[in-house]
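Title: Prediction job returns without error message
Component: structure pipeline
Severity: low
Priority: P3
Assignee: unassigned

Description:
Job completed but the reporter wants confirmation the result is attached to the right record. Sequence as submitted:
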Amino acid sequence: MSTTVPSVLFVCVHNAGRSQMAAAFLTHLTQGHLQVRSAGSTPADAVNPIVVEAMKEVGIDIAAEIPKVLTTEAVQASDVVITMGCGDACPIFPGKRYLNWQLDDPAGQGIDAVRPIRDDIEARVRALIAEILPALGQR
């Protein structure tokens, strides 16, 4: 069995909403069993405050997170790259697994519109965990 920790990179345009929620759920639910990164092709100045509020409702605080720029190194260092509307901005490397999650953008949305996006992301992250780490998916 390999001793390397699998790594997942979530990418969206601004790294202020969808990718931040996905990374936070994966980090929270796997408790360090995976290396988790998030980035944006054109990062915002701050995480969307409505997204921060929506995540607090489920007990996850992402208020201290800062949007990060997508780098080639981050993609190369990841086993799984999950894109969320970043289009062609995400570099493609052989040997990586790529998934594209079609999700509404929470930018400019109110809390009532962000909650279903958050819940959809959580369900997708749980399915990913069940696939990557079956023992954790059984919890």
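Comment from assignee: result matches the submitted record. The first helix runs from residue 18 to 30.
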